Amino acid sequence: MSEPTAPPPSFWTEPRGVRTWLATTDHKRIAILFFVGTALALMLGGTFALILRVELVVPDHGIVGAHAYDKLFTHHGIVMVWMFMIPAIPGVFGNFLVPLMIGANELAFPRLNRASFWVYATGACITLAALIGGGVDTGWTFYTPYSTTTPTAVAVVCVGVFVLGISSVMTGLNFIVTVHTRRAPSVPWMKLPLFVWTIYATSIILVLATPVLGLSLALVGADHVWHLGLFDPAAGGDPVLFQHLFWFYSHPAVYIMVLPAMGVVSEVVSTFAHNRPASYGGIVVATIGIALVGFFTWGHHMFVAGMSMFDTGMFGALSMFVAVFSAIKMFAWVITFYRGRVVLAAPVLYVFTFLFLFLFGGMTGVAVATSSLDVHWHDTYFIVAHFHFIMVGATLTAYLAALHYWFPKLTGRRYSEVWARRAAVAVALGFVGTFLPQFLLGNAGMPRRYYAYPEEWQWLHVASTCGAGLLALGLGTTLVYLGVALRRGPPSGDDPWQSRGFEWRTPSPPPAVAFSAPPVWERDAYSYEDEVP
Amino acid sequence: MISGRAHALRITVWLVVASEGLLFAGLFALYAGYRAEYPRGFAEGVGLAVGWLGGTNTLVLLTSSFAMAAAIQAGPRAARRWLVGVLGLGGVFLGLKGAEWAIHIGDGLVPGAHYAGPHTPGTALFVTLYYAMTGLHALHLVAGLAMVAWARRREDPAVTECVGIYWHFVDLVWVVLWPLFYLLS
User: What ipTM was assigned to the predicted interfaces of this complex?
Assistant: First the structure.
């Protein structure tokens, strides 16, 4: 061990002791706790996915039975959506960076923030206990009437996810109030870093959409226990009404995942192009626009569930507005790169992957929002591949970009750039390799959530499984070199990327109290004018 | 100019109201959907309500909102007395609500497998929604009572005002529930 000098005091070591970590109200430590939680969830959900992919290498019975398969894809979805993707970027990077980016020492309600982590942990434990104790086989969407009649542990999982939802609302509320009330005088609204804008917009969705999810799951859970028949046609209920309630949350939930990812990309693009974002105002408007329009697109999940032609047309057209706002951002990022001086580093490689997945996933999104095409692709692997590209791929690559970009901020150390690039390439190729064959499978007619399939599709499934293996290898490698860097990485200095972002104007890692007085920042977070000719 | 803390509390309470509003909105949407599908079953369900209990409870809650408004207008000392009134009226509401549920359960109007009410299509759904919506409202009222007790201890005008906003919201939800379950037959 080569520890030349003791590192300066930081939030990591002050105050000392495990108990101070468990009871912490410091936003930086809560961010680290959320990182541990979401990383464990990613590993668990990823393990479920790998078992699914290995099973699908053969057209019929492989390593698990049909019923175990149903449970595995359900568990994969539940763990990945509610324990990883929803809290990942807001819980980890939002918590760590929002106060540093607005010149505050704390969120508006530090104890509420602590509670939001422990409520998350409680919800995760309840859900996992139910998954281990019996499992659920409904798919992560809990469609009725199957979900209210299956003998599996639906009610307990509903309680667990409900509790996770409470954590979401607490987090969102805290961020909104923080941005309104804790900005330093030198950070007016239109000088907020773009990442803060996306966390703000995401928080609005968290606060307004999550209660509807909570309600729908509470009703499904109660129905499962007391046989209310609320969504059961045999008792006069209407299953489609459940779908409306579920997607009223679960479509905006996609933007809960993607908006923070876009915020990360905006920051990384600007820093590594050493250039001001091509249109700060355009990106802000597009961010808020996506958050608002996102509330009125849920019907596109239900084109074939029984919907009038008028509604189908309206939901289709509204969904396409999301593509317009996304295109504004896409062009802004590309122009920023084009006019800047791009430094190739691991975070940039992840952003390139993000841009590819986002473009490809977005264009297939426009295609499936067209109801005549959706009739063909509905509930096939095409949909699976589409939402993994746009929602999972975008969120995961942005999470990894954020992790690599802000690793020196969090730890004050540098990781191995060589290994980081290798892993970034493996993740990119692995991800595309996993889901590109699934577009083809879906277009050929392979339905999602099926355990067996005709033999002529085997080569595509094998290709997809190989991709998944490469993706897992990339993620595993990342865990190793970041773990090594955490203990033995060389010091990074306060601002290793020469970024002008506000968060880099404090020591890395920051001390327990980052600002002794409200900071006075004369130049904004993207002031690279002196560098670009 | 209001202080930073009062500002934060005010934003918080409006966000909580918006969030809770959407929680109830889901149930109102279900009610609207099923009422449109089963107009006769729902009309018959409203006929089963104990009208005078619902009406009394409406009066009780509206009076409690008056007391709440008076507490916000009054000085800190008088506010404590008005808040006792709010607590008492909230308690009366919950007592009457409990009595009403007991009457219904005695009549066999229980949601789920043991439902023994009229078999007009939709009436059973109406009864389930009745328990779900008035039950959720009662839970919010209990939370409201806890907040009122807290505001009474704190004696802070900003806290009293914010708790008042929440209390009026809970009251407002009841003002919508009342016609849906007692009047529109």
Answer: 0.93
